[in-house]
Amino acid sequence: GIAAVFVILIxxxxxxxxxxxxxxxxxxxxxKVAYAAVKLQNIELARKEFATTKQDIIILKKDLVPMAFVGxxxxxxxxxxxxxxxxxxxxxxxxxxxxxxxxxxxxxxVLGLKGEKSxxxxxxxxxxxxxxxxxxxxxxxxxxxxxxxxxxxxxxxKVNPNRYPQVWKLKKVHDQLVTLKTLVNGSVVAVEDGxxxxxxxxxxxxxxxxxxxxxxFQNDKELRPxxxxxxxxxxxxxxxGIIKVDKAGDIY
Length: 252
Prior knowledge:
This protein is mainly alpha-helical and 252 residues long. It has 7 helices and 3 strands; from the N terminus they run αααααααβββ.
């Protein structure tokens, strides 16, 4: 009775685990292909490979469903939940990559993202203008990208690296998980802290209308209430990223 049930359970877990590991190997290989496309600066190819990676991750999530009960078993349940959370984090990370790619693809030529060393023809000014316009199109997606990264962070934070002893091959697993948590947390902080400025940059660079600025230079060796003795100034305009100086000189 009990022995037979135990044997059947072991066989069941063995088969489901084999299916998952086989699909996980394919997913890892596909993720490397997507990363290679990113290194080649080919945004269209990267988007395609990330989409394929996402489908592979969805298959992994389905593979884990038949083993869901393992998550409630003391000790080994922790390892199952770590795998489940890592798969979930991977999906959110790929989603963020796809959203970013979709925003950049229409401007791949001017940004040089159609392959290594690829740039559209045109003057430097034309490229700057298109780059500013591109940034304006990407900015609206920053909130969605941030949401995906935060969701990935939530999943990764549930993973416990200390569950894997720092001995033999498990040390590599432990170190990789620690590095992953650091990278994900750092990405979220970077987006959170940089988002206010990122949203302002298109406007500051005169994407829609010209902006005029006054810059004052101060000598901090001669302190004044504002910080220092005013020595030099410049007045310039910025339109679509192109800077034109109207006037510059010292205060004399």
